[in-house]
Amino acid sequence: MAIHGLGQLDKTYDGSKLRIGILHARWNKEIIDSLVKGAHDKLLEFGVKEENIIIESVPGSFELPFGTKKFSEKWDKQGKPLDAVIPIGVLIKGSTMHFEYICDSVSQKIMDLSFELGKPIIFGVLTCLTDEQARQRAGLGGHNHGADWGLAAIEMATKFDL
Fold first, then answer.
1. Number of neighbours of residue 102 by Cβ within 10 angstroms
2. Domains and CATH numbers, the chain
């Protein structure tokens, strides 16, 4: 099974003036930690200053949409708005319909938040059928999609002069 990243950039992006939030779920800690590290390291690679990468957590992926909204609003109220937010979670199919309901709800609301908040909210939720798929996509034996999400946050926050 091939797992690829974003592909070629259309130009070089400078993240040095950006403030990026990463809000992560705490379920599946090993996978989440790897995805957060991938996003964090890519943000640094493209010039985002360490002090401008704000990382917080919520219990699980279902809490990511509400948490992302409140996380963004908190920093807006403090006069230190985030230019983009990367909610990071992982959902792995089990033996019940729980997976389908959570995937659908979380995916739809994260997409809606970009429009509601007027800033890029990057879809950083793995929706996998097996633990092995999640590990591969988290860079634990394959490509780390967290790095793609970090780069997508920089591109989206700079490309359209947000």
1. 17
2. 20-159 (3.40.50.960)
